[in-house]
Every structure is written in structure tokens, then in C-alpha cells.
Amino acid sequence: MTAVVAISNQKGGVGKSTTTYHLARAAHTQGIPTLVIDMDPQGNITSSLAGESVTEDQAGVADALSTRAPETLQDVLVPTIWSNVTLAPTVGDVLAVVRDEMVIAGAGRESRLKEALASVVADYELVLIDCPPSLDQLALNSMTAASQVLVITHPGQYSANGLGRLLETIQAVRSFYNPQLRVAGVLINQYDKQTRNDGHWRLEIERALESNEVAMLEPLIPKRAMIKGATEAGYGLDEWPEATEEAQRLHGLYSSHLATLLS
């Protein structure tokens, strides 16, 4: 069975796209056929992963979701900077327009991505869906299409406060649209173990997850500039030109979390 993972948090800036990128790299290094779907109108993962520049007039995820366009998901797929990893891209403002289209659409709107994915999912062992920083129709479509949700968060008050609402949304999706959906766990990103504040919020998040019977994934992802730097430069941590023992260790962290998602 293909693991279809929605990487989610309604809060922006927590590192969803960066996590998606490094998980895709981990999959590539293991020879795992992977599809990355950019469901964020900002298109950050498209900018990082696309093998060639994707122009604004090029068909993308929005076209595969819209009832006004003839393209299927297969039609919009593009190669990435790594073999074994394929991308369903997002460019321009079109995905936001389709999101608004779905708001006023009728029955079945939450299942458009699931239906689009059905024709290609068998070609991959792993599908990573980079969700928008919201709980809108794009996020609901992502969760409805997924087999599991990986929640990315920060060790901070605003992130901790938003977890409850996100978990409620996941439960609603499970109840109404996707009974098989499960939470793979919550991964704390940009964690600085040297600061008392991060330690405090880690414990607060851990307590909240225990009451919801949701696992905190370990090891946590530490706060390191090279994680974002490698993403922006189009490198995997394992091939980073300034590769160090630390970079290899960080790559290993993502590989260990990938193993959890595939188990």
C-alpha cells in the first residue's frame, strides 16, 4: 500500500515545506518512488524541488482539482532535482482561485484530490502532500486523500495553542470523509534544547498529545541554519557542499522519520 502523508499545520512558518523537502530527499536516497503534491498556494516546495522552472501558464495541481480544466493529475506532473521523486506543482495564484471555487461547490468537494490521486497513486510507494498554512478546503482535500497526517509544530505558545484545533479538524475529517485517516504523530521542528522556553513548550505539547493519545515523534528536529540553507540551495543535507558530520546526522533524522511513516 502506498503511504499518503499530509504534512500539516494551520500555522505558517513551522517548517512544513522544509520537512517535506528533506523527507523527499531521504526517500530518494533509499530509491523509494515518491510523489510530492504542492497544495500550498505559496508554492514553496515547487520552487525548491522542480527540476526546471515552472511557469505561471503551466498546468499544475489547481488544474487537476478544478472542474473547469481538462487536465488530470498525471498531466501536470513534472520531474524534480532528484530521480525517483516527481512533483505535482503549484505556481501563481491559481490554486487560491480553485480553493475559493471549492468553497461554493457542492457535494464531493472535499474528495477532489483523492479522486485525482487515484489514477496515479499505484505508481508510488510514498506520496507527500505539502498542506497550506490553514484549515481550508485545500487542507481538507489533503487530509481526505491521505492515509496519515504528520503534524509539524514549533516549541512555542502559539503553535501549542493551535494543536487542539488541528487535531479536532483531523477527527472531523476522519468522521465525515476518511475513516482510515490516522495521525502519524507530531514532530517538533527548530527545537533548541539549550533554551528553557523550548523545553517548557516541549513538555506542554507532550502533555497535550498524551491527553489526545497522539504520539510525539522523536528525535526532534533541532534548530540548524543548514536545514533551511540546503532547501533553498537545492541540496540534500547528505550532499550539502559544506557537508559535515552534523549535516549527515540531520539527514539521518529525516530518514528515521521516513521509516516511521512507511512502517
Describe the model.
The protein is α/β, with parallel strands linked by helices and 263 residues long. 44% of the residues lie in helices and 13% in strands. It has helices at 16-29, 44-49, 61-65, 73-76, 94-103, 112-117, 137-145, 157-176, 196-211, 225-233, 245-262, and strands spanning 3-8, 34-38, 78-79, 85-88, 126-130, 148-153, 182-188. It has a seven-stranded mixed sheet, sandwiched between helices. Helix 1 crosses helix 11 and helix 8 packs parallel to helix 9 (196-211). The protein is globular. The protein starts with a strand and ends with a helix. The model has no long low-confidence stretch (mean pLDDT 93).
Give a brief outline of the structure.
By secondary structure, the protein is of the alpha/beta class.
Q: What is the fold's blueprint, element by element?
A:
Elements: E1 3-8, H1 16-29, E2 34-38, H2 44-49, H3 61-65, H4 73-76, E3 78-79, E4 85-88, H5 94-103, H6 112-117, E5 126-130, H7 137-145, E6 148-153, H8 157-176, E7 182-188, H9 196-211, H10 225-233, H11 245-262
Parallel strand pairs: 1-5, 1-6, 2-4, 2-5, 6-7
Antiparallel strand pairs: 3-4
Helix pairs in contact: 1-11, 8-9
